[in-house]
Each structure stands twice: as structure tokens, then as C-alpha cells.
Specification:
Largest interface: A-B, 47 and 34 residues
Order of helices and strands of chain B: HHHHHHEEHHHHH
Number of strands of chain B: 2
Helix content of chain A: 55-70%
Strand content of chain B: under 5%
Number of helices of chain A: 8
Order of helices and strands of chain A: HHHHHHEEEEEHH
Strand order of the largest sheet of chain B: 1-2
Oligomer: heterodimer
Largest sheet of chain B: 2 strands, antiparallel
Number of helices of chain B: 11
């Protein structure tokens, strides 16, 4: 009887040590898989999903898998400190809308693509790099690499690098360049124009 | 013929050395540190870029659109294959110059297969045989040898380039068989090559026009990053890939641990 008790203790103790993944938060690779599955679903349903519906369908997944507020702050670099609170709030809100609008506009057709996850490895600054490939129907591959960091126990995307081109670096160069030469209003104006452009007839 | 080849290559190298000051070449690919001003030629690049966009809007794009409308996709594909194959000797040259012997032999086979079975390069049969296409040029060779990229440069008509890659204009011309041929069909073929390239670049250019908030900066940044990607053949080291300093919000590296990552 005692032996049986000890076995139970051992088994339950062991189960207690290996927490289920959801208690620890998803692994970074799972976060990327979730995003990519969501994108492929929308692509496959693009025939009967207009822009607004694609936007609505992608919004929750994009919000959960990306750290949009952090990316927004990083995309204006040192100019963030110089913005007033109302400007910062407006910028983060606009950036948020633009990010989802970009996905909704770009992923609107399917022709046999699929994603493959290649690897996940830690990098500097407690971040994680997930390497993946988008494989098109003609066999051509596009490198989609994601850099994630932990926020509130959850892995979230900080940057996406497509065939060596870093989205965050691109945005940062453009936005800081515009802020320097033309100011905040010009930047917000351009971002809002882009959102309307994506929404109009796409 | 040998002297003919050597002179432009030597001139090209000398040009590069003078302009980029690539002293102290290392044996590892260039790990360019963050440059304070990545675009010292911006004052001449921007007007050139504006002129190129003007020419493109009024001539390049309409002609390329017409070409796409009128010419059947299969024929356009053959045209692209033909010119890609013609330019492939330059890729082979730079495979060997970068010490990529295996790739050099593979690419030589690719060229032979496409020229013979692919009927003068019109059909890309090599890819289906496992001889995939590679992208190598003089700029990447110099990058592999350790030369810095040099200044960003916007060439008339041809657009983005870097000073390091300028010598490639010479090698790609000299390794192209048409350089040695003088017939009346050269000029129309050169135009066709340009139209073909513009048609193939259309999607990327439209993407840029739709996505860019500041098109000049967008093009420069995307181009330079993609060049680094090519030098490393798709595997740049993480430092090059992610430019760590951009993840520190207030620009102060010491506070990196309490920057965005600290907001748990």
C-alpha cells in the first residue's frame, strides 16, 4: 500500500513539475504558427472575404501575436520622447490600424503557398529568432524570419525580416526621416492616407 | 581576348579601391558596423532618384505595361530566361572569385544545360534538374573579401546601387557574349532586355509605391539590406540581421535591460 502511495506521489509530483504549455505561455514557434495559419486561412477564403472582413478576421490574431505598441515606439526611435502624450496615443493607434490594414490588404489570394518553420533559437537581449520559409507553388522560397520578445509571459513579434529586409528598420528609417524633415502631422497624415488607400476598393 | 578581359577587371578593382578605400581586406564577409551616415551622396542621389521616377512614370512603366499586355506570358518567360542565361557567365565568374567552387561548377552546368537543352537559354530546364539559379556579382565578391559597401548610389536609369558594386557594370558587360558581337540587332535587344527587367520589377515597384511613406528612404533601406542578404547568401549573422541598437527605445544602450523587454 505504501509503495502504491509513493508511486502516486511520484507520478503526481512529476506531472506537477512539467507544467502544461498554456500555463508557461505558448512557445515562440507556436505563436508564429498561429499567425501563419491565420494568414493562410484568410488567403484561402479571399474569394468571399472582402477587405473589411479580412481586417476583422485578422485583427485578433495580429494583436495577440505582435507587440504593436512596442514596435510603434521603436519605429520612431529617439523622437518618441519628444512627442506629447496625445501624439503618442494617436501614433500608436494609427500604427495599430496600419499594421492590420497592411496584412488585410496583402494576404488576399491563395495559389498553393505554405509556410515551413525552420528553427527557433535564442538571441541577444532575451529575444528569440524563429526562422521560417514561405514556399510558393513554383518551389521558390522566401525567408520570413521573426524576432520575438516576452511581454507579460507571452512571446510577441517585435520584427519581421523578409529576405533580409527588416520591417522595423525600414519603418524606422522612413518615419524618423519624415519626422526630421516634415514633422509629426506629416507622418500621421501619410499613415492615415495609407490606411484609407488600403481600405478603398481592395 | 585574355588581355581584353583582364584590363576591365583591373580597372574595376582600382576604381573600387579608390572610391571605397577598402584597405585591410579580411577573409570573412564584410560585417559593416552601423555607419553614421549611410548615404553621404544623398544630395545627388535624391535628384537622380526623382529623375529616374519621372522617366519611369512617363516612359519605362507605359512601355513595360504595353509589353506585358501584348506579349504572351510564355514568350515573356522565354525572353527573361534568355537574358538571365546570357548574364550567367558573370555569376559563374564571381562564384569562383568568392571561392565557391562547388557552386561555380553547378552554375557552369546550369549555363551549359540551359544553353543546349534549353535552346540558347530560352527555356530554364536546369532548375528542374536541381541546378538552381544563384545571384552573384562583383559587389558581392568584394563584400565576401571584406570590402565595405561604400556609399549608396542612385545610377541614372538603372537606379539603386552601391559604390562597391559599380565594377560589376564592367564584368557583367565583358562576360556577356553580345559585348563581342556587332550586329544591327544589338540595339533592339538591349531595349528588350531593359523592358523585360522593368516588367519583372513591376510588382516590387508597385509594392514600394503602395507601402512607402518616404519612397526614397524606403528604396535605399530595402536595397541595402537586401544586398547584405545576398552577400551572405541568405544567412546573414544575427547582428547584421537585426541591428540590435534599434531595440533600445531611448537610445541609451545601458538601459537596454529596462527598455521594452523590461515591460513585463
Amino acid at each position: 500500500m505504501r509503495q502504491f502511495f509513493y508511486i502516486i506521489l511520484l507520478v503526481t509530483g512529476f506531472l506537477g513539475i512539467s507544467l502544461p504549455t498554456s500555463a508557461r505561455g505558448e512557445e515562440a514557434t507556436q505563436v508564429i504558427k498561429r499567425l501563419q495559419t491565420s494568414l493562410l486561412t484568410v488567403m484561402k477564403e479571399a474569394d468571399h472575404l472582402d477587405y473589411q472582413n479580412r481586417y476583422r478576421q485578422l485583427e485578433p490574431t495580429v494583436e495577440e501575436t505582435h507587440d504593436l505598441p512596442a514596435v510603434a515606439r521603436l519605429s520612431v526611435g529617439k523622437y518618441w520622447r519628444d512627442l506629447q502624450k496625445e501624439q503618442q496615443d494617436l501614433f500608436v493607434k494609427t500604427f495599430h490600424q496600419l499594421s492590420i490594414a497592411t496584412y488585410a490588404s496583402r494576404f488576399k489570394g491563395y495559389s498553393g503557398e505554405h509556410f515551413n518553420i525552420v528553427s527557433e533559437k535564442p538571441t541577444r537581449g532575451h529575444r528569440v529568432l524563429v526562422e521560417s520559409r514561405l514556399i510558393k507553388s513554383d518551389g521558390k522560397q522566401i525567408h520570413f524570419n521573426y524576432l520575438l520578445h516576452r511581454v507579460g509571459g507571452q512571446w510577441r513579434i517585435l520584427n519581421i525580416v523578409v529576405n533580409g529586409v527588416s520591417d522595423l528598420a525600414l519603418k524606422r528609417t522612413e518615419y524618423t526621416g519624415l519626422l526630421k524633415t516634415k514633422g509629426f502631422q506629416a507622418l500621421i497624415g501619410k499613415l492615415q492616407n495609407q490606411i484609407h488607400h488600403y481600405a478603398d476598393g481592395k | 581576348m585574355q588581355r581584353l578581359l583582364i584590363v576591365p577587371i583591373v580597372v574595376g578593382l582600382a576604381l573600387c579601391m579608390h572610391i571605397t578605400g577598402c584597405a585591410g581586406l579580411s577573409s570573412t564577409p564584410s560585417e559593416s558596423p552601423p555607419v553614421e551616415n549611410p548615404d553621404p551622396l544623398e544630395k545627388i542621389n535624391r535628384p537622380m532618384d526623382k529623375m529616374n521616377n519621372f522617366l519611369d512614370r512617363h516612359i519605362g512603366k507605359p512601355v513595360a505595361d504595353g509589353y506585358v499586355t501584348v506579349v504572351h506570358p510564355d514568350i515573356r518567360l522565354s525572353v527573361s530566361n534568355f537574358f538571365d542565361n546570357l548574364g550567367y557567365l558573370n555569376v559563374i565568374l564571381h562564384d569562383f572569385l568568392q571561392g565557391k567552387g562547388k557552386q561555380g561548377f553547378q552554375d557552369s552546368s546550369r549555363f551549359l544545360v540551359n544553353t543546349t537543352i534549353g535552346i540558347g537559354g530560352l527555356f530554364d530546364v536546369a532548375t528542374g534538374m536541381g541546378l538552381e539559379e544563384h545571384n552573384e556579382d562583383f559587389g558581392q565578391t568584394l563584400g565576401t573579401w571584406g570590402a565595405d559597401e561604400g556609399a549608396y548610389l542612385v545610377l541614372p536609369v538603372f537606379g539603386p546601387d552601391t559604390v562597391r558594386n559599380v565594377p560589376d557594370i564592367v564584368t557583367s558587360a565583358v562576360t556577356n557574349i553580345f559585348f563581342y558581337v556587332t550586329t544591327p540587332i544589338i540595339a533592339p535587344l538591349a531595349v528588350l532586355k531593359f523592358v523585360d527587367r522593368r516588367a519583372r520589377a513591376d510588382q516590387a515597384i508597385r509594392f514600394r509605391d503602395e507601402s512607402a511613406v518616404e519612397p526614397y528612404l524606403f528604396t535605399r533601406e530595402a536595397y541595402l539590406q537586401h544586398r547584405t542578404f545576398l552577400v551572405y547568401d541568405g544567412n546573414p549573422p544575427t547582428e547584421e540581421l537585426f541591428l540590435d541598437e534599434i531595440y533600445v527605445e531611448d537610445g541609451n544602450p545601458e538601459s537596454a535591460s529596462t527598455s521594452i523587454d523590461g515591460q513585463k
